[in-house]
Amino acid sequence: MNREGRYTDRPWRKSRLAARILLRKEAERMTPRDRRLAKILSQDAEVTNRLIQQGLYFLGIGTRKHEFDRQLGLVER
Fold first, then answer.
1. Is residue 3 a part of any domain in this protein?
2. Which one, out of 6, 35, 50, 70, has a CA that is 20 to 30 A from the CA of 23?
3. pTM, whole model, 2 decimals?
């Protein structure tokens, strides 16, 4: 199967991975591996906040986005 397409570029894959790590953080299920990857991805110039946000919506965060941001401390309560 040809994996070329709109969701296969490297920055998008990295950002989707970062979004999954954020979901694990929200669920309080982060592993040491997740922490290492989060540190690496947070310093990667290809991983932007915008792409992470798109990754969260792709993974189904949808209407929970504002509550999700509050739980992670990204916005004031």
1. no
2. 6
3. 0.77
